[in-house]
Amino acid sequence: MIRLLTVLAISAILVSLLGCSTEEDIVNAVLDPGIDNRLAWEAMNASIAEGSALLQSPDGVEPSQIRQKLTTLKANTSYKLSLKVRAVRTPTAQLSLDLFVDETYDSPDQELLIPPLEIGPQYMAFHKIINTASFREQPYIRVFTFSTVPVEIDEIGITEVRRGT
Fold first, then answer.
1. Of 3, 93, 94, 125, which has the fewest CB atoms closer than 10 Å, so is most exposed?
2. What integer best gives the mean pLDDT of the chain?
3. Does residue 3 register a pLDDT over 90?
4. What count of Cα atoms within 13 Å lies in the side-chain half-sphere of residue 27?
5. CA distance 6 to 77
6. In CATH, what class is 23-163?
7. Bigger pLDDT: 28 or 134?
């Protein structure tokens, strides 16, 4: 009985650490969490330093964003999009993490929206399981906001997952 409880406790800890439910299994990491490769990330109205990004719209109309072209994403596959977010005070707009190519590949089903009231002064982790559709070219992963209050982003990750049955 003690052995079974120990196994269950260890399983619960691993599920918690990996951020997966028992209904999803990690297959492989497409983008390891972090923003360490500054050359791969494009920043627009944003800055990248010391492994994190700071997003702030200059006027609430023009977005602040970082993005990275993906090279190994598979079509018609489930992925877990994740990131950590914090802000010194409540942002003036939501934050979005999504996949896109252009107007023809920018689906709301592949977007993690984080309302301003859920972003606080301590890093909070957010994730969403999405399924890719077919695409003619590899999409970007993009984080953007129209908030005029600075929003700090860390540990952006994409992990291929397999849904349990």
1. 3
2. 81
3. no
4. 14
5. 34
6. mainly beta
7. 134
Taking the CB of residue 149, how many other CB atoms lie within 10 A of it? 18
CA distances from 109 to 99, 129, 147 (A): 10, 10, 22
Instruction: Please check whether residue 161 is in contact with residue 113, taking contact to mean a CB–CB distance below 8 angstroms.
Output: no
pLDDT of residue 17: 40
Q: What is the mean pLDDT of residues 114-133?
A: 95
Which of 23-27, 61-65, 132-136: highest mean pLDDT?
Answer: 61-65
What are the E-state strand segments in 45-150?
A: 46-49, 52-55, 64-69, 78-86, 95-100, 111-114, 124-131, 140-145
Q: What is the mean pLDDT of residues 30-38?
A: 64
Contacting residues for 108 by C-beta, under 8 A, at least 6 apart: none
Burial (0-12, 13-18, 19+ Cβ within 10 Å), 151: buried
**Cα–Cα dist 24/142, whole Å:** 24
Cα separation, 120 vs 123, in Å, equals 7
96 within 8 A of 111, measured Cβ to Cβ: yes
In degrees, rounded to 5, the angle at the alpha carbon of residue 16 between the alpha carbons of residues 27 and 126 is 80
